[in-house]
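Changelog note: in this version the structure field was regenerated for every chain. One regenerated record is shown below for reference.
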Amino acid sequence: MTTATSGPWTVDAAPDGSFSIYAKYSEARAVVIAQRGRWSNNVPASIANAKLIAAAPDLLVALRIILRRLDSAAAEVDCFNVYESRDLARDAIAKAES
């Protein structure tokens, strides 16, 4: 699998609902992750979706940490919720990395 652009990603949103999501590496260098012009009348949803997309790298890192901790805890505690949570985290990571 090709590696995704590293985070953090930032949203630059306009009042009309258009947005750009980019990874800023310095004042002189940024990589555009996604852009969207205004095509929806639901501006709040457009901005919320952009923020969720921009959070993806941070969410993936957090989920990997949680999964590592759940793997350790599952070995010590026989608890269905731990196993279920671990499986959900593993599935989400697999989806992001496939």
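Spot check on this record: Residues 58-97 form one domain. The longest strand covers residues 30-36.
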